[in-house]
Amino acid sequence: MAGRYEPCRRGKFVARFTGDMITSLAPVTSTNNVYSSPDSAMPSSAPSDYSTDHGVTPPPYTPPPNMLTNPSPTVPSSTDYTGDYLFEISLSNSMSSSSKSATWTYSELLKKLYVRMGVTCPIKFKTRTQPPPGSIIRAMPVFKRPEHVKEVVKRCPNHSSAKEHNEGHPAPSHLVRCENALSTYVEDQTTGRQSVIVPFENPQVGTEYITCLYSFMCFSSCVGGLNRRPIQVIFQLEKDGTVLGRRVLEVRICACPGRDRKTDERHAQPPPKPLKRGYSKTQGFQLMSVGSKRRKGDDDIYTLTVRGRENYEILLKIKESLELMSYIPQNTINQYRAQQHRQLVAVPPSLGKKLKMEYENVNPE
Predict the structure, then answer these.
(1) b/e per residue, 149-179, with b = 16+ CB within 10 A?
(2) What angle do CA 245, 251, 256 make, to 5 degrees?
(3) What is the pLDDT of residue 107?
(4) Which candidate, 356, 326, 325, places its Cα nearest to that of 340?
(5) Which tens digit of pLDDT belongs to each residue from 173-196?
(6) How many CB atoms neighbour CB 104 within 10 A?
(7) What is the mean pLDDT of residues 61-87?
(8) Which are the contacts of 187, defined by CB distance < 8 A and separation ≥ 6?
(9) Which pTM was predicted?
(10) Strand, coil or helix: 58
(11) Residue 282 carries which DSSP code?
């Protein structure tokens, strides 16, 4: 067969043989079942058998059937969606305090969970009506900021390769774990995102919620993992790939949850408004000072706000005393002070010395 060309049917192409090897393919040009010769189908001057002159159009791309029924989004939705079953999550109020000894704590102000690494945190799930049998709860961590949301959240290489917390575990690289015998750890083949799913169970008698125990296996500051990038966990109620409800919870994994919660809440609150110049804040009222030296002939009127009847009576007496003193001549005031000084001299030395010091401090000459 060397040096000869023989047509050979391969679908809708004609195979050209040189010796025992196929050297090129030529498309069929006739519309009937009779194939034309390869020399007439493919000019000798063509640089390639697949040039655009042949008019061959590749077939359209058809995705796999599972992608058509249940596509995996590149960017998961982080919008709360209660759905027809009113899917909700909550955390126990027993750990709402921000003490340093707390292993986890939840901030109602920031809607954020602070938890230690590897500590079990109970999260409650509730639906208003019973979801269909076979429903599951999926927990999937994602980065919060738009510039990082496309990246997959995984543990850092240091923690994922260590023996601690990893011996016998089927998914050492997963950040979120669930203490449930029926837990299944999933990694999406399209996006690579990791999640853990558990079956949705019916609430026990006398309760409205079902409780799942989750733990987070890396610090938010770990290099090579979260790397100080904020994350949030998407909890989805699903049935055969269809999302029935969604709740999103921001999570910070740290060594001292109580301290970090206090710091974030303090930064989140607006700063206090600065007081005007000349005002000083006290316990029960605001007092406005007029300066270190009182100006003579100052007839301005000032208002003093005080809380409590007793405090008001005391300040009223002081006000009346100061006003009465303005009507007493200065000579009368000096005579009164001299009389008080003579009375202090007449008392015993031990008591007189103490009273004299108090008198001089109150009435300096």
Answers:
(1) beeebbbbeebbeeeeeeeeeebbbbbbbbe
(2) 150
(3) 93
(4) 356
(5) 999 999 999 999 999 999 999 999
(6) 22
(7) 75
(8) 193, 194
(9) 0.58
(10) coil
(11) -
